[in-house]
Specification:
The structure holds two protein chains of two kinds.
Chain A lengths: L1 H63 L8 E2 L15 E13 L2 E13 L10
Antiparallel strand pairs in A: 1-2, 2-3
Chain B lengths: L1 H15 L4 E6 L3 E4 L5 H11 L3 H18 L2 H4 L3 E2 L8 E6 L2 E6 L7 E3 L11 H5 L10 E3 L1 H4 L5 E7 L5 E9 L2 E9 L16 E3 L9 E5 L8 E7 L5 E6 L7 E8 L9 E6 L3 E8 L2 E10 L7 E13 L10 E13 L2 E8 L6 E2 L4 E2 L13 H9 L2 E6 L2 E2 L4 E3 L2 E8 L12 E8 L11 E4 L6 E5 L5 E5 L4 E4 L3 E3 L7 E3 L7 E12 L4
Parallel strand pairs in B: 1-6, 18-22, 23-24
Antiparallel strand pairs in B: 1-2, 3-4, 4-5, 5-6, 7-8, 8-9, 9-10, 11-12, 12-13, 13-14, 15-16, 16-17, 17-18, 19-20, 20-21, 21-24, 25-27, 26-27, 27-28, 28-29, 30-31, 31-32, 33-34
The chains are: A alpha+beta, B mainly beta.
Chain lengths: 127, 517
């Protein structure tokens, strides 16, 4: 009688220990996962910020550069309240694309800009 | 003996004709100078004119005097300058097909190109030049940039008296004029060509057709089978036809191409009848399709249309108060039409379905006294709700109106009705109207000019802004150009040169891919 109750206590203890270890293990995994999740958001945010600041710099450089870029196409000017006849003003459409990578993640920012200029003498250049 | 007499006669003629040079093209024989005809060419000319040899010599003798009497300085003001690689001092003007290359430089001669079919009826030109109810459309100049051939110029013109024809000339210098092609009712595919007073239109790029093409209007007054021809620019070969439907007749020579889907390729043609009905047709792959009426302005009693242009603009749609800044991007049709020897200028908002009539437009003719020109907010709202406006102008437009920074600049000439061809007896003015409500933008709504102005150009001024100049005389017409501003109905400001180039951000897109481990 005495022997069987001892065995019961041992088995119960073992089962309890198993349950406890399962709970603690899963909690550990969960914590690690949430840490990763939290980290990924931060990393993603950092990457976005980095790409965006680089993109803004590229836009600034483009606007300041006087040299003609080869990435534009001449197309109709967008609608303006103070509109221009199409043979007086010229519009060039630029596309600026910035991509940043971090591990297996990449973030791309693309901007479409129009550069309107007034060439001397209009499009035919005759004054 | 007869031959020597003829030779002597020809020699004398050439002496008299030395001052100017006169070109034509004898079919099957090539381009000739009428002052240097061989005996055979002289005979061809005599046959063509239905005169005998001596009468032909006399005709040649009188040709300079005839052309001098035809010359019309009020038409000459419409002249277009030749590119610098040919000779920038020359202006080209067409007298219904007779081309005149003239210059202010007295040391240089005037050059005439006279279409062969026009020679027997040259004396009738004067009637056409002084017809105040119609507009004389000017030739199309295709320069080396568009052609891709250095040093070459192609001139395409219509010739409308006796046998209507469109023709193209090729030149690399003024001493070398060659007829490239000529299209009349005898040419294959053009049997119904009955009017050629239109201005040819160049199509630069078309999907599926690599070369340059031209659009030529059949300006026949009654029941034409074809309204518009599309031809190859270099050969004149027919590529497509727009067949007449919906009882369209009396097509005017004014047309405009636009890029409706804004992909840099012209895909839509706007044209009208002399009475003021406006149509639009889509054009792609040598096919015309979806012909539809845009407006019927015949109630405004036009006698001809001088110019049609399209403009893509942000049109105000709001009213007063918080709605003031609402705008919609849309196509505008700009129209210069003749009525009782004066011009009616129309700005029409192109509607996708409805056909606008004159009652959908607001009469914005400037009153005589400036204090009556006040635009109230009710008026402004009314203009925004309607399909556009029209303004009656005193005089005829001499050049295509220029729209710069929302201001329409109009070049007007009012000829003396008794001396129609005398520019000295005419009065000229420059008008500047607000694109959206046709009010005066500058203090003076109309600027009287001492000399009739040629083509208008925008040029940088010394004050860091832009000036409006007259190209031919290089005369400054407006020293400091203004730009309309959307801040208020009458707001305007000086256009600053350092505000160019202007950058406009059209959109920013973000894209994220991949995952963290």
């Amino acid at each position: 009688m005495m022997m069987s109750s001892k065995g019961f206590i041992l088995i119960t203890t073992l089962i309890l220990m198993l349950i406890l270890s399962c709970i603690s293990l899963s909690m550990l995994v969960q914590t690690q996962l949430s840490q990763k999740l939290a980290g990924s958001a931060t990393l993603s945010f950092q990457l976005k910020q980095h790409t965006q600041s680089k993109h803004l710099q590229e836009l600034k450089q483009l606007k300041q550069s006087t040299a003609e870029s080869d990435t534009f196409v001449i197309a109709p000017c967008p609608a303006n309240y103070a509109a221009w006849s199409d043979w007086i003003s010229t519009c060039e459409w630029y596309q600026v694309r910035t991509t940043e990578r971090q591990a297996h993640h990449h973030h791309t920012v693309t901007s479409v800009l129009v550069r309107q200029s007034l060439p001397e003498g209009g499009r035919d250049g005759i004054l | 003996m007869e031959f020597y007499r003829l030779g002597l006669c020809l020699l004398l003629c050439s002496q008299q004709l030395f001052a100017d040079s006169f070109w034509s093209h004898i079919p099957g024989k090539g381009s000739v100078q009428l002052t240097e005809l061989s005996a055979e060419q002289h005979q061809s000319l005599a046959q063509h004119l239905q005169l005998d040899a001596e009468q032909t010599t006399e005709w040649l003798n009188e040709l300079p005097t005839l052309l001098e009497t035809i010359s019309c300085s009020t038409v000459d003001i419409q002249g277009q300058p030749l590119p610098a690689y040919i000779d920038a001092s020359y202006q080209l003007v067409s007298y219904a097909g007779a081309l005149k290359f003239h210059t202010d430089d007295k040391t240089k001669q005037t050059i005439w190109w006279l279409p062969w079919t026009l020679l027997p009826t040259l004396s009738q030109l004067k009637t056409q030049l002084t017809d105040l109810n119609s507009h004389l459309h000017q030739p199309l100049l295709i320069a080396e940039q568009e052609l891709g051939i250095k040093g070459q110029l192609i001139i395409v013109s219509g010739s409308s008296i006796s046998q209507p024809a469109y023709f193209a000339l090729k030149l690399d210098s003024l001493a070398n004029l060659e007829l490239l092609w000529s299209l009349s009712a005898s040419a294959p595919g053009f049997t119904d060509l009955a009017g050629a007073v239109g201005q040819p239109l160049l199509i630069e790029q078309q999907k599926g057709s690599p070369g340059l093409s031209l659009l030529l209007a059949n300006t026949a007054a009654q029941d034409p089978k074809t309204l518009i021809y599309k031809v190859d620019m270099m050969t004149g070969l027919l590529q497509a036809k727009l067949a007449a439907e919906q009882n369209i007749s009396g097509v005017s020579g004014a047309m405009a191409l636009s890029d409706q889907n804004r992909d840099s390729v012209s895909d839509s043609l706007v044209f009208g009848s002399t009475a003021g009905q406006i149509w639009q047709v889509q054009l792609e792959h040598n096919q015309f399709y979806q012909l539809r009426a845009v407006a019927d302005l015949s109630a405004l009693n036009f006698s001809d249309i001088q110019f049609i242009r399209t403009l893509y603009a942000a049109v105000p749609v709001g009213g007063a108060g918080s709605d003031f800044h609402s705008r919609r991007s849309q196509w505008l049709v700009l129209l210069g039409a003749l009525r009782q020897q004066n011009t009616v200028f129309v700005v029409l908002k192109a509607q996708s379905e409805d056909v606008s009539s004159s009652s959908d437009l607001v009469d914005r003719t400037l009153p005589e006294s400036p204090e009556l020109a006040l635009l109230t907010s009710q008026h402004w709202q009314h203009i925004q709700q309607k399909n556009g406006w029209f303004s009656q102008l005193s005089g005829r437009l001499t050049h295509i109106p220029v729209v710069a920074a929302g201001v329409i600049y109009l070049n007007l000439l009012k000829p003396n009705t008794e001396q129609l061809c005398n520019i000295e007896q005419s009065s000229s003015a420059l008008m500047a109207l607000h694109l959206h409500h046709a009010s005066a933008v500058y203090r003076q709504p109309s600027l009287p000019l001492d000399h009739a102005a040629g083509a208008l150009k925008v040029k940088a001024n010394t004050q860091g802004g832009f000036a409006l100049i007259e190209q031919h005389r290089q005369q400054v017409l407006i020293e400091t150009m203004l730009e309309i501003s959307p801040d208020c109905t009458h707001c305007s400001k000086t256009i600053q040169r350092d505000s160019f180039p202007r950058w406009q951000l059209m959109g920013t897109y973000h894209n994220e891919e991949g995952a963290y481990e």
